[in-house]
Write a structure and sequence with these properties.
binds 5'-O-[(S)-ethoxy(hydroxy)phosphoryl]adenosine, 7-stranded mixed sheet, 22 helices, 23% strand, alpha/beta, 649 residues
Length: 649
Amino acid sequence: MVTRIDNLMHESRRFPPTVEFIADSVVGPEIYAAAAADRLAFWADQARTLHWHKPFTRTLDWEDAPFAKWFDDGALNVAYNCLDRHVLAGNGDRVALYFEGEPGDSRSYTYAELTAEVKRAANVMAGLGIVQGDRVAVYLPMIPEAVITMLAVARLGAVHSVIFGGFSSESLRSRIDDASAKLVVTADGGYRKGKVFPLKHAVDAALAAGTESSVEHVLVVKRGGNEVEWQHGRDLWWDEEMAAADVEHEAMPFPAENPLFILYTSGTTGKPKGVLHTSGGYLTQTSFTHRAVFDLHPETDIYWCTADVGWITGHSYVTYGPLANGATQVMYEGTPDSPHPGRWWEIIQKYGVTILYTAPTAIRSFMKIGRHIPQAFDLSSLRVLGSVGEPINPEAWIWYRDIIGGGNTPIVDTWWQTETGAIMLSALPGVTTLKPGAAQVPIPGIAIEVLDEAGTDVGLNSGGLLVVSEPWPSMIRGIWGDPERFVETYWEKFGTKYFAGDGARRDHDGDYWLLGRVDDVMNVSGHRLSTAEIESALVSHPMVAEAAVVGAEDEATGQAVVAFVVIKESQAHAATADEASTLLRAHVAEQIGAIARPKLVFLVAELPKTRSGKIMRRLLKDVAEGREVGDTTTLADTSVMRIITDKLS
Ligand code: WTA
């Protein structure tokens, strides 16, 4: 990774905003000065663009650091801000969502229609006993009901926990249990690569797996049309409940710090963290960044973020940011290549998409299949392109700009995390001179530093640890049920400065370059995975004695999961190496989800360890990336690496 970034920093192409773009830009350069002059006043002004049932008088309370409170004496309703207020402002006829299903079906919702649906759904949930503070698990495909569910939960002041549809029933179970969810909203199935993938089935398995479950009801959206089993009394069809529900629902105000959602993400241990976000600050920063970073003109833009609602990008830049801003957006259910490799470009042409927000891994896969695919479509409506999830290499950046953006479309590379809730580093397209490969500068009102282990600023052009040095409105408020882990993970290192887990470097122009994770978190196709979590899935298999997982550099997916496994003596003859490797890859997919399935599983006799028994993943990474193995002097048994490399070569 470091070598790649070193090369990348020699990138010398620069793209200043054009005169035409500047003329119509939502924000100008003065915004940086305004934010710098009084950071808290700046955020308070941004917060006041929302509708507050009860205005706040306090902006930030950092007394109990690292537990922050923003706008905490104010009260608002998040769903009202995303829906009712646009209708009341006379924009009820504006399209909020253009939905495109993978099989080719489509439907759209105006703001008035979406508001009506959310009101009904809120009544359905209230009828099932959901009140402020209750947790609702959401396990849905990328269909409008996912957004409707999130907003209905928010409308009631309850807390959603969206679980990506690609996670297994095991992962679902542990997330439902950790948050003690009372209700699960799912679908019979959804479409993916031309087939229906079952979801309700996984919910049944998750709820059957343990003993007592907190879940009282399962609401099931009909989407896939696949057969489902039914538990009377517990399971309810969404459409029947919606048809019977009252369409009137008054949005009640909730305190700004009322929990809005929990989103589980991988950390450095085997157990995913339930990252907690609250209402007023989160909505303030997601809506501000969505407007400023994408130069949103809600009357004319057609915005499309390709992320699934199961990830933070889908929360902040499909549901909350765009809808708070009254934007018109496209939502697509399926995969980019189904039923044909030009599906995305066809959608852009069909709806006249003007702003596209996606991940480098998608761009790289399009580069691989060739420019003739997008070039067969009219993409001239595009005027801003966004990137998120991992560093975008200059080659992909230029391809994105030239082939998708017609050679004149600004690209904003946005750095942020599940924990930050909203974009933290990015260019502003009407202000910043773009530099391919850099995440560029802090968003106005955000304070970033690059420090060494001792907490000293490393200065310009040196690698260090990326830190957010002042609290920000959409920051993580805690780890669900585990305040100690929250403090330990993010704050123990630098006190009241937030440690992000990423390496970074700041260049002479003040632009930031991301150097990848410095902990045991991997980034595969922009998805966060934990080495420890996959290791613990592997050792849960009866064949496995020990396992070590590394994220190896991969051209297509950024990183790939590579596992080194020691098989138990007693199982040595139970399967051939190929069989064992297939079996274990499937086992991980079953335990965590297909996204965590290792690309490669190497069976080894021993793992390289230090004298104190710590696995030296660095050496395994060398092997997995096909490099000469580095310094082995701290190994307890220096012959181990030779045995591993001999066996593999
Ligand atoms: C990485 C996704 C470089 C980073 C929004 C971070 C990035 C992790 C970028 C968070 C970017 C995200 N450039 N690296 N533009 N965006 N990352 O929580 O390592 O799924 O810590 O949030 O992705 O992943 P998460």
